Amino acid sequence: MSEPGRRSRLPKINVGPFGGFKVTLEQMALPRVTVQYPDHKRPKPIRAHGRHVLNRYEDGMEKCIGCELCAGVCPADCIYVRGADNDPGDPVSPGERYGFVYEINYLRCIHCDLCVEACPTQAITESKMFEFSFTNRADAIYTKAELVVDDDGRPQHMPWEDWREGDDQYTSAWMRATAPGGDAEYEGEVGWSGELGYGERFPEAGQSGRRDDSRSGTRSLRDMYTLHLDDSERLPGQRGTRGAVNRLRARIEAKRPGHRPAGGAFPVHAVTPGAVEPAPDAGTGRELAGDSTGDGVEVGS
Amino acid sequence: MGLEDLNHNFLTARVEDLVKWGRRNSVWPATFGLACCAIEMMAVGTADFDISRFGMEVFRASPRQADLMIVAGRVSQKMAPVLRQVYDQMMDPKWVISMGVCASTGGMFNNYAIVQGVDQVVPVDVYAPGCPPSPETLLHAVLTLHEKIRTGAITRRAPETRPAEQVSGWTPEQVDVVRLGTPR
Q1: Which domains does chain B have, with CATH numbers?
Q2: Is B28 on the interface with A (CB under 8 A)?
Q3: How far apart are CA A5 and CA A184, in angstroms?
Q4: Which end of chain A is more exposed for a tag (fewer CB within 10 A), N or C?
Q5: What is the pLDDT of residues A194-231, one digit of tens each?
Q6: Which residues from B are below 8 Å from A85, CB to CB?
Q7: A138 touches chain B (CB under 8 A)
């Protein structure tokens, strides 16, 4: 009686114009996707561009030297910088000059990060906080007092901004990959000095084969951010049961004494401020661009 | 609408709170998407962000049924009179969110074709920065607007509290630097 293809189908019920309700009922059975924003915030991608921060060296000196390259490169003309000479007795930054006035108009900034790439001292980077709004135009102009990082190296949390867990971490991590010091020969080599709250940072994944994800800490951060992904959005080796087995195996491998992870997820380098041991010659007047090779930092092999 | 002559005693204060509560939870936006920001504005209406949690899912095609104009995108000089007409057709009380940097200040389009800030045309209540603002940023602006409705007067707009020259936060020394050049 029954044809071969017929048996797999559901029993056909003639519901006439109400057939469309089948779609509705199916949707009701699916899990909800709504993120309840004011209560929960979706984690940002690791290289999200948010509000800027002005970084400082490990000893508290400001990195900005007032060179106005960021203002020059800005396509929206949202940055206003004026430099001034440092007082030799009480310097603000370890060079001749420092940023005397530094203002960003967030009603003009398009978060393209050209300023970050132009900055010769990695003074300006971006956090991942993107949830803020203003009730008048003057409030949107951030001055240096609001942009510069706290004494622990984290961005200041303004009351009208919506900071969540993880938004102020690794504010400058992503930039290390896109600005490898300008010389292709030295891609993946450390070419910058220590940063307040983070210490000496290692190159990030992205451009160089000589990177070390476990030392930069960015791999574990990426794992944290991919926890919320659907299974179909993961990399092929991380999907389903096999992916869970792989992750478990990597975790067991990492706990073995003497194990050096090859691009693995553990351990995180220099997450907590204060736990960072400064490099032996990390000081105020370190040259930024030229000292990478002589630093004794071996990255990968 | 008969509310102008209310004295501020206990009963009318409660009525005021009720009116504000009602307005806050039924802000119907007018569709005024002009550019890429409109895509993010549409994303706010989808299930992922679900603006109907705030009673705002009814994007009205007619300005006469709308309370809020979300100016999403860059406003060209030719669009400015249209924008003003749509605003004038909206019923009081009405609010404006300037979404994105182009609507707020012209953004990176600093040229003769784009209005450098929609507040030259209509009074703006909340500015949402970003290019474009993420849906969360727009929701943050919406929540800021809710706070403004909650704390504001019900019959008139809240006046600007601070003049522009007081909010720059510059010291006189810094003003001199801007005017005269770098010191020393």
Answers
A1: 3-154 (3.40.50.12280)
A2: no
A3: 61
A4: N
A5: 778 777 766 665 545 555 666 665 555 556 556 656 66
A6: 183-184
A7: yes
Taking CB atoms and an 8 Å cutoff, what residues of chain B touch A160? Answer: 144
User: Does the beta-carbon distance from B182 to A132 stay under 8 Å?
Assistant: no
Could you tell me the CA-to-CA distances from A43 to A35, A60, A92, A176, B36 in Å, in that order?
Answer: 11, 30, 35, 21, 23
Residue type, A163: W
Mutation target for A interface from B57, B125, B137: give the one with most A CBs within 10 A. B137
CA distances for A127 relative to A37, A43, A147, A250, B158, angstroms: 19, 13, 11, 30, 33
* CA dihedral over A279, A284, A288, A290, signed as positive or negative: negative
Instruction: Tell me the pTM.
Output: 0.72
Q: Do residues B95 and B27 make contact, with C-beta atoms less than 8 angstroms apart?
A: yes
CA distance B156 to B177: 40
Determine, for residues A36 and B53 on separate chains, whether the beta-carbon distance falls below 8 Å: yes
d(CA A55, CA A125): 7
For residues B64 and B90, is the Cβ–Cβ distance under 8 A?
yes
What is the C-alpha separation between B183 and A108, in angstroms, rounded? 28
Complex ipTM tops 0.85: no
